[in-house]
Specification:
By secondary structure, this protein is an alpha+beta fold. It has 19 helices and 21 strands. It binds one RNA strand through strand 1, strand 2, strand 3 and helix 2.
RNA sequence: GGGGACGUAGUUCAGUUGGUUAGAACGCUGCCCUGUCACGGCAGAGGCCGCGGGUUCGAGUCCCGUCGUCCCCGCCA
């Protein structure tokens, strides 16, 4: 192949097929960079040696597909090209076949500047010819294979589950597929194979995995596509630790396939700890944690600054940012999303001038070095005291401060990435890939709009054994913000890498009585539960083994390994922010006949 | 649902306080060139300035609307 020719092949006859990546026509001598998936090799056409062949080569243009027969020749040392793997050799052409021509392309795979993404997506087949995309897709392939090999070696069976399944009204919006045979009824595409994989455990398959497409009809982000791929697995009789070991095992294999030897086991961190130190449940450990500097101020200082004395005062340290100009400080303000009365002090110098003693203590406590940026996030003194959640480890008022600070911490780090350099790969894997298990999530989250407790993970997650008694009055207290439900911890865990949630899993409920207790605690009557999950509740009654598992986002893993900043870079045919495929132009309206067949009528928008 | 950025040759971009014929680079076409490798040189073609309205003597430039792409919040059990 084009990328595989080496000096040791010189003298050999070779046939290379590929695209014309670039041509350099010097008149009597023509150089063609011939490209295939493996790389490029220079092909030479020399008029002096073969005039007829040279004339034919003059017709070659960018992205023509050709076959060249010739002899591999080691180049003269002064014509080596050290920039390419095949730079010490070239193919001296003896025969040329033009297999196909190309009209002028909207852009060239060999271009050094990228066209905008709209163009790239519309002509995806050209975009995918680029080296970077070839590498990303190759990375994806290698990761998939490494995961498959590892899991198979650990006794996991790869088992498929249906795409046309049943809509469950929980969670994300479903993509629906109308049934022609049952007019008026719809299948749903799975948001994940959650219930099927649990049923597989009940079916005796013991260890299951699948690299599987999932579908969620929600708004997109750089790291969210409507269809995405999960590495999904489930196993019987697990401790949390046994699931983690499997995940650490296949991630080691996957990163190893790309030449990265990662260290296991990953560190672990309680959810509460993650919130307090990083303000988010997916902490990026490459950046410094928060420092609570409340005690660096005197009570009078706090009063003068209108800082709430009972809420955390968070110092966010971003290394090596340097002194900020007035304008740069102004730019910080819109980056700050104030939740629940949180306020930002972006001008640390002003604090130092007015409160030198406090500032010195803060600098000390936060480990501030010269040129480090310190920004404070505090609770406004106006926040009304509330005892509604006083018993929680992290109260909603505190959470608001932590969360605001957490978003700002990441936003600052992104804005000043060039200055602190902490996102640059160093080659030191302990710095480049900071994995962490976040554990002991709360089982329930308070939903302010519904004024009730909701499942934080999903309702099949097992609570901690010792928290079970707190479920007792769940059904009665689900609408009470002070309910003991708030203290129930889930046996749920997330694996996080560099601030990206790679995956999420849990030990499941395997007893029907506990499962229905959970549904009750979510305010669901037995009848509601039966309508939605009847088949599953019934399955639980026929000898269900304890089981648990996890699902990891393959796209996100590949994205990080490829160093890409959007999922679209690692998905061959992705969708735009409005969920459109620009290449095939989907979705589209369908014919009246198709709709009639399905018993569907489109209600035209007014106007 | 909300906020922000962008939209000018095939492509990436520039285009001054609104003012004659809208520029550059790459790509494309032709000619020249025997060691290039992002080859070089000369000449040339190529524009619904996203679309629709408005302000103005005059709009790529100002205003309103709309469409598209991207980012963020909400949302994503």
């Amino acid at each position: 192949m084009c990328g595989a020719v080496r000096p040791s092949d010189s003298g050999q006859k070779a046939v290379l097929m590929g695209w014309v990546n670039r041509r350099r026509d010097l008149g009597s001598i023509i150089f063609i960079d011939l490209r295939d998936r493996s790389g490029v090799t220079q092909v030479v056409f020399n008029r002096e040696q073969n005039a007829v062949l040279h004339d034919k080569a003059e017709q070659l243009r960018n992205e023509y597909v050709i076959a060249v027969i010739g002899q591999v020749k080691k180049r003269d040392a002064d014509t080596f090209n050290p920039n390419i793997a095949t730079g010490e050799v070239e193919l001296v052409a003896e025969e040329l076949r033009i297999l196909n021509v190309s009209k002028q392309l909207p852009f060239l795979p060999s271009d050094t500047v990228l066209p905008n993404e709209e163009m790239r997506l519309k002509y995806r087949y050209i975009d995918l010819r680029r080296d970077a995309m070839q590498f990303n897709i190759e990375t994806r392939h290698k990761v998939s294979m490494a995961v498959r090999d590892y899991l198979a070696s650990q006794g996991f069976y790869e088992i498929e589950t249906p795409f046309m399944t049943r809509s469950t009204p929980e969670g994300a919006r479903d993509y629906l597929v109308p049934s022609r045979v049952q007019p008026g009824s719809f299948y749903a595409l799975p948001q994940s194979p959650q219930l099927f994989k649990q049923i597989l455990m009940i079916s005796g398959f013991d260890r299951y995995f699948q690299i599987v497409r999932c579908f969620r009809d929600e708004d997109l982000r750089a790291d969210r596509q409507p269809e995405f791929t999960q590495i999904d697995l489930e196993m019987t009789y697990p401790q949390q630790e046994s699931v983690w070991a499997v995940v650490e095992g296949f991630l080691t294999a996957a990163f190893g396939a790309m030449g990265h030897k990662i260290k296991t086991p990953f560190p672990r961190m309680d959810y509460d700890e993650a919130i307090r130190q990083f303000g988010i449940d997916k902490p990026d450990l490459r950046l410094p944690a928060f420092t609570d500097v409340r005690d660096c101020f005197t009570a009078e200082d706090l009063q003068e600054l209108a800082i709430h004395p009972d809420l955390p005062v968070i110092a966010i340290r971003t290394p090596k940012v340097g002194e900020l100009s007035r304008k740069e400080r102004d730019d910080i303000k819109p980056m700050f999303v104030a939740k629940g009365g949180a306020r930002v002090f972006e001008d640390f110098k002003r604090i130092s001038n007015k409160f030198p003693a406090a500032a010195a203590k803060i600098a000390e406590k936060a480990g501030m070095a010269e040129n480090d940026l310190i920004v404070l996030v505090v609770g406004s003194a106006q926040i009304a005291a509330s005892s509604e959640h006083a018993h929680r480890k992290v109260t909603p008022q505190e959470l608001a401060i932590y969360a605001s600070a957490g978003l700002l911490r990441v936003a600052l780090a992104q804005k000043y990435a060039e200055r602190h350099g902490l996102f640059v790969k160093t080659g030191d894997l302990e710095k480049d890939f900071r994995f962490v298990w976040v554990t002991n999530f709360p089982m329930y989250e308070w939903d302010e709009s519904e004024r009730q407790w909701m499942a934080a993970h999903h309702p099949f997650t097992s609570p901690h054994e010792e928290d079970m008694p707190k479920l007792e009055n769940g059904a009665q207290t689900v609408k009470d913000p002070k309910s003991a439900l708030s203290e129930v911890r889930a046996r749920a865990y997330d694996v996080v890498l560099n601030g990206t949630e790679l995956g999420s899993g849990s030990i499941r409920i395997h007893r029907q009585d506990i499962q229905s207790k959970i549904f009750q605690s979510l305010g669901m009557t037995d009848e509601e539960a039966r309508t939605r999950f009847g088949f599953f509740l019934e399955a639980l009654e026929y000898g269900t083994p304890p089981h648990g598992g996890i699902a990891l986002g393959l796209d996100r893993i590949v994205m990080i390994l490829a160093g890409a900043d959007s999922l679209r870079e690692v998905i061959p045919f992705p969708k735009t922010a409005r969920a459109v495929d620009l290449m095939v132009d989907a979705p589209t309206p369908v014919s009246e006949a198709q709709l009639k067949d399905l018993g569907i009528q489109i209600k035209k928008p007014v106007g």
